[in-house]
Amino acid sequence: MSDARPPASSSSGDRPVQAVILAGGKGTRLAERLHGRPKPLVDVVGVPLLERQLESLAAHGVTSAVVLVNHAADQIERFLAERRSSLAIDIVDDGEPRGTAGAVLACLDRLEERFLVVYGDTLFDIDVPHMIAAHEAAGADATLLLHPNDHPHDSDLVEVDEAGRITRLHPYPHPPGAELRNLVNAAFYVIERRALDGVAPAGWTGDFAKELFPAMVARGANLHGYASFEYIKDLGTPARLDKVERHLREGVVARASRRARQAAVFVDRDGTLNALRGYIRRPDELDLLPGAAEAVRALNAAERRVVLVTNQPVLARGDVDAAGMHAIQARLETLLGQQGAWLDATYLCPHHPDAGFAGEVPALKIACDCRKPGTGLFREAIATLNIDPDRSWMVGDSSADMLAAERAGLSTILVATGEGGRDGKWPGTADFAVPDIGAATRLILEEFPRHAALVEPLADVVAPGDLVLIGGLARSGKSGLAATLRTVLRRRGLAAASLSLDRWALPPDRRRPGILGRYATGEALATLAPWLAGEAIDAVLPFYDRFTRSVGLGDRLALPGNGVLILEGVPALMLGDLKDVRRVHRVFVAADEAGRRDRVIADLVSRGFADEEAARRTYDERQADEAPLVRESAASAAVRWTLDQA
């Protein structure tokens, strides 16, 4: 279940695409920038807005345009007569203001069977064929482009059902206390002409959003909501024009194109964005965690697509129906919107594999690929939003979140809120662990870019087929360095995998004294032997649960022979000579000891194995039997890296 499914291939083929541009506005609020010109000819970074609109439409396959003019019609007619265009352009003077819908209805006889409606005060870059394909797949009478924004409280909002069909329109102003989805009518439409036949009497005046579309919904017309992150903004005031021009100059418009690969942050819901309170069955049970809205707003501002991916078995259990889930989602988006934050897309799994609950929904009691740690929803989002996994992240609180994201090729961040990774259900490990989503956002936007820059010199010398060993004391930053290096290498086009030797940590009853007595290093080398000998590897790896201190089978490692393997862990530099086939890079990670000590103690306490005093004793014991050998292994490293550098 999601806001936007990948549309089927368009059946329109080479069918001509017509656009209607509503270019009759006076632009009263923009008068100081117009210098006597009509609003559609306002200068936008040196180019008239109408020129930019026509160029964008042509670039996306539009073949003709009907330009509806009124105020200063002669200037627009002269402008269009003087420009050369690949579009066939028809100019219609509608005589007197009729409202957006009234103007289109008045020239219906000039329009094709299907047409776009474009407002003359918007700058946009919309993948028109993709939108039309969604329109056709829905069998819609009209399709409205929807997007979230940072001020839904004073925007025209749209309500959709599970299939994306519009069930209600909520024009601004909204009733006090209303909790609505942040799906804003962006004023860009695909309309079937037949759907408008007889919808209003001759000479009718009115607006699409406030009058015509609500009337069509009331009559049972199929209006479809096409949710998209693509760029569209009105520039009807000086402040909005300034913002749009800044976005053009800074590349924001180009980066928001569906043609551009998107960097995304996938986020879990319960325990990550909002407080974990068991199954949430009512909207009033959902409250944002402190700092969650600010974190999402920072990701929005940094042009990261924020994608909610959540398991909601309450639907399969029969605890909540579709309307109830819609209300819960509306509360979440309202709470975020009140602080200027939004979700770009929501993907929700309603299934549960186990039957036997009173009131359950049999059709949803299935084993599926969309329930995390399955990757179905991730694959759908990656395809639909054109997401680049190598530049994207997952932030969650459970082992299912981490395993699903790992399988989908994302970098992973485990937050300590909610489950905090203690659920023990799946062999999912995190690249990074942080206190909450606010810290995760700082890592993504600030710390990781800084770390990646520091890792670049190491990445420069790593070649296909190399082995990188990263050693150092516990809680010194080894796993973070390994994850950062892996991501940098992947962005350079190399196949790279990062493994922690903690996978081969022994349970307490099998351990021997000393650092090497706590790891099954022989088993690790045996598992990796094919790759170390120069071959590809496809092997099931062990998994060590840090919270239960138990071992089991984990996920698979699939790496070609020319891939890069990054092996990190406390004893990584003690594995002996591995140079027979592979070129080996040895890295030692150090950290300020006072800070490392605090992290070790906090980690032991958080896992519930000791109180603070017992954790201090464990730290002291490790300092005696582990630290000297680990520090001695640093002599074999050609590269030293410290948290202090970062």
Could you provide a short overview of the structure?
The protein is 32% helix and 22% strand. It has 646 residues and is α/β, with parallel strands linked by helices. Helix 9 crosses helix 14 (437-461) and helix 14 (437-461) crosses helix 15 (478-491).
Descriptive notes:
The structure is a single chain. This protein has 646 residues and is of the alpha/beta class. β17, α13 and β18 form a beta-alpha-beta unit. The longest helix is centred in the C-terminal third of the chain and has 25 residues. It is elongated and about 90 Å long. About 1% of the residues have low confidence.
List keywords for this structure.
alpha/beta, 6-stranded parallel beta sheet, 646 residues
What is the secondary structure topology, with strand pairs?
Elements: E1 18-23, H1 31-34, E2 43-44, E3 47-48, H2 49-59, E4 64-69, H3 73-82, E5 88-93, H4 100-106, E6 114-119, E7 122-125, H5 128-138, E8 142-147, E9 157-160, E10 166-170, E11 184-192, H6 208-218, E12 223-227, E13 231-234, H7 238-250, H8 252-255, E14 264-267, H9 292-301, E15 305-311, H10 314-317, H11 322-337, E16 345-349, H12 376-384, E17 393-396, H13 399-407, E18 411-415, E19 432-434, H14 437-461, E20 467-472, H15 478-491, E21 496-500, H16 521-532, E22 537-545, E23 550-559, E24 564-568, E25 584-590, H17 593-606, H18 612-625, H19 627-633, E26 639-642
